[in-house]
Amino acid sequence: MNTKNILKFCVIGSVGVATLGLTLVFNASPAVAHGERSQEPFLRMRTAQWYDTRWNPGKTAVNDEAMLSGKMHIAEDWPRAVVRPTRTFINVGSPSSVFTRLSSKVNGTPMFTSGPMELGGDYEYVIKLRARLPGHHHIHPMLAVNGAGPIAGPGGWMDITGNHKDFTNPIKLLVGGTVDTETAGLAQGIFWHILWGGLGFLWIGWFMVRPMFLIRARVLAQEGGDELMNDPADRVAAYVMLGVCFTIIAIGFFVTDSQYPYTVPLQAGAPLIKPTHLQSDLTMKVLAADYDVPGRALRMTLTVTNNGETPLRIGEFTTAGIRFLNKVGVANNMDPNYPAEIMALDGLNMEDDSPILPGETKDIKIDSRDSLWEFQRLMDLVHDPEQRFGGLVMSWDDSGNRHINSISGPVIPVFTRAQG
Amino acid sequence: MALFRTAEIIKASKLPPEGVKLSRMIDAIYFIPIAYFGVFATFHMHFDLLAGDWDFWIDWKDRQFWVTVTPIVEVMYPGAIMYYFWTFYRQPFGATLSITGLLVGKWITIVLAWYWWANFPANFVMPATMVSSALILDCTLLLTRSWMLTAIFGVWAFAMMFNPSNYPLFAYSHQPVVVDGQLLSLADYMGFTFVRTGTPEYIRIIEVGSLRTFGGHTVWISAFFSAFISMLMFTIWWQVGHFVGQSFFWVKGKRGVRYRKNDIMIVGTDEYALRHGTLPGVPAPVLEGKS
Q1: What local confidence, expressed as pLDDT, does residue B99 receive?
Q2: pLDDT digits (tens, 9 = 90+) for A340-365
Q3: How would you list the strands of the sheet with A99-106, edge to edge?
Q4: Helix, strand or coil for residue A317?
Q5: What's the CA gap between B256 and B263, in Å, rounded?
Q6: What is the structure's pLDDT at A15?
């Protein structure tokens, strides 16, 4: 290699190092979301249908308690491509453990371990949290389904102020006393690692202080080399080390056993959670639906029958945690703390928005139109293996009573304005 | 006979003093930056791929799978490394080197990845230790000087000592707690309280299977089972060490045909020079008792 080539490589190398440095300086921003938009639309629209999600309060200090709560409907029209929810876990989607989870209840039943959920079932979850890491965090409820992976619910921002060093998470032991989950067992763990690690390095060091490789290889290649390297000092050291190991193990085991006389194995039961079901005086059937790609709209024609005794007005269509509302929905179900970026306040339009009268059956054309379809990457529906949609339609009577229907059906993409 | 044979060994190597000094430099360069870091990096990756979650999380360390899986996986690499160091150098620290190397890698991960980057407390991701088991394995090889006896007795002790040597580290996490009317171990609660978005509870494998039904002595039954599989694994990986650590070189014969020669350990020795000749200008050595 001549001088010119060496110079070339130096220049290329310098550019590479500089690029890496600049990338780290300018582009290593912290991740703030969990890729929920990258999940396929059919997964988000037709598995867990989230509603009434609350992040309360939005601002906390370290050690304060907060609540993540809401409801989810397990869609009847569960996709064939997704494993059925026979083993599920209600989880929190957060960037690391920014909150610790103190309690998690689904329909009033504690959910420490995973359990089955029923298609068509409705589940209310309440997750009690304690603020741990200061910052501006994007928090999701999440349903993890064994075999299908995590299904993220809507994400909302929660702020934590204070200092992580002040955080404690005490828990009472059944046998008396309290431990802090941040530090329990840490000192003894480090002690035993140092002790055994020290002995390990001592053993290696015993052989490092003498010729290790080349000399021994040369001797070993000779006749009688093996016998020569059977050093009596090493044999004594090995006996001593064996004795030390067995003695320390025995002392450690029996002392610890007497220190913790009452222990239990890891618990792995499955909670049996009884589902509730959506209540509605309306019955709905999807007659037709298309997805207007250039117009960013899902257009549905529903046959609706009111079996109740009061007139009802449709006010909201929610799918994949994204809410499309009209004036009725805003008047009855407007949560000012719900993240604005996943809510379209005038995103629901109907050709005929007159109330559905008791006993009446009519076809209603509903149009949920907003750029959210594209921004939240639900327009990727056209690339899914199943061209079907799903969601919840909410209606209200004049007294403010809510009626919820789960709908689903095939959807036809409309690719051009001319086609539409 | 003297207790230490170092002087005799150096003399038998027939290296001049400069050669001895140079060999120590090679020892340092080869051992620390190459052998040690190479082993800890590759073994760490190997272990995390096969048994990582059992070692990462405190709520995975059950009486059955943790006790079974960890020794089986941790004995593999030491088997191959022990073959290499014992066969070529008669150095009985292959297992200790592997396991301490693994722990160096693990602690780097705990501090930089789990604690600093992902903000989990170190007690929640405390790894198990098998250094005591490794020391027992190395001592067995040194004393028996037989890989077969090491596989039978050393590896058996290697696996059986796993639980008692780790009990002082993790017994605290099996203390009972009651949360929302449910009995949990402290480890279960820690797994629940520290939110892991990508690790839902059902991924844990807690006492699945029938090993636990033998009179409730799940740990010892699992350890026994693990010991037998570990023996098999050690034997297989010792042979892996033999396969990848074969010493041979290609020699060009008088008729120009290249053939494989398996005694590379004598390269550079006088015997080698006598058998294969010396470079032009270098006189042939004269060995005692040979002419």
Answers
A1: 96
A2: 999 999 999 998 889 999 999 999 99
A3: A48-56, A65-74, A122-131, A99-106, A109-110
A4: strand
A5: 20
A6: 83
Which domains can be identified in chain B, with CATH numbers?
Answer: 6-244 (1.20.1450.10), 247-279 (no CATH)
Contact call for residues A233 and B4 (beta carbons, < 8 A): yes
- B123·A185 Cβ contact <8 A: yes
E-strand ranges in A39-153 read 48-56, 59-61, 65-74, 88-93, 99-106, 109-110, 122-131, 135-145, 149-152
Q: Is the peptide bond before A311 cis (omega within 30 degrees of 0)?
A: no
Q: Do A101 and A85 touch, CB atoms closer than 8 A?
A: no
3-state percent helix, strand, coil for chain B, nearest multiple of 5: 65, 5, 30
- In this prediction, residue B213 carries a pLDDT of 64
Predicted confidence (pLDDT) per residue in A22-36, tens digit: 776 666 665 556 677
Contact assessment for residue A378 and residue A39, using Cβ atoms and an 8 Å cutoff: no
* CA distance, residue B259 to nearest chain A CA (Å): 21
Burial (CB count <10 Å: 0-12, 13-18, 19+), residue A22: exposed
Which of chain B's residues have a Cβ under 8 Å away from the Cβ of A144? 200-202
Sign of torsion over alpha carbons B156, B157, B163, B164: positive
ipTM of the complex: 0.88
Give the closest of A97, A217, A253 to B167, CB-based.
A253
Between B6, B179, B185, which is nearest A103 by CB?
A: B179
CB-facing half-sphere around the CA of B126: CA atoms within 13 A: 31
Q: How far apart (Å, rounded) are the C-alpha atoms in residues B180 and A334? A: 32
Tokens 């400069």 appear where? B18
In angstroms, the separation between the Cα of residue A23 and the nearest Cα of chain B is 19
Helix H or strand E encompassing B178: strand B176-179
Contact A218 B99 (CB under 8 A): no
A416 Cβ contact partners less than 8 Å away, ≥ 6 residues apart: A293, A294
Q: Which two tokens stand for residue A299?
A: 């257009």
Extract the tokens encoding A123: 């589940």
State whether B194 and A225 contact (CB < 8 Å): no
Tokens standing for residue B15: 């290296």
Q: Which of B8, B176, B193 sits opposite A169 (nearest CB)?
A: B193
Q: Give every residue of chain B whose pLDDT is below 50, as ranges.
A: 1, 290-291
Q: What is the mean pLDDT of residues A132-151?
A: 94
Concatenated DSSP letters for A10-36?
HHHHHHHHHHHHHHHHHH-PPP-S--G
Q: Please tell me which of the candidates B31, B92, B173 has its beta carbon nearest to residue A185.
A: B173
How many C-beta neighbours within 10 Å does residue A284 have? 19
Distance between CA atoms of residues A155 and A138, nearest Å: 6
Q: In angstroms, how far is CA A378 from the centroid of its own chain?
A: 19
pLDDT at A300 over 60: yes
Helices (H), A2-102: 3-27, 41-45
Q: What is the pLDDT of residues A88-133, one digit of tens each?
A: 999 999 998 999 999 999 999 999 999 999 999 999 999 999 999 9
Please identify which residue in the block is written with the tokens 């008047």: A331
**Alpha-carbon B281 to chain mean position:** 45
Which whole number is the average pLDDT over A271-276? 95
Q: Phi and psi for A151 in degrees, rounded to 5?
A: -115, 110
In this complex, do B142 and A235 lie within 8 Å of one another by their Cβ atoms?
yes
How many residues does this entry show for chain B?
291
Averaged pLDDT score across all residues of chain B: 89
Q: Which residues of B touch A203 (CB under 8 A)?
A: 93, 96, 135, 138
Nearest to A390 by CA among A76, A54, A11: A76
User: For residue B2, what pLDDT is reported?
Assistant: 59
- CA-based R_g, chain A, Å: 31
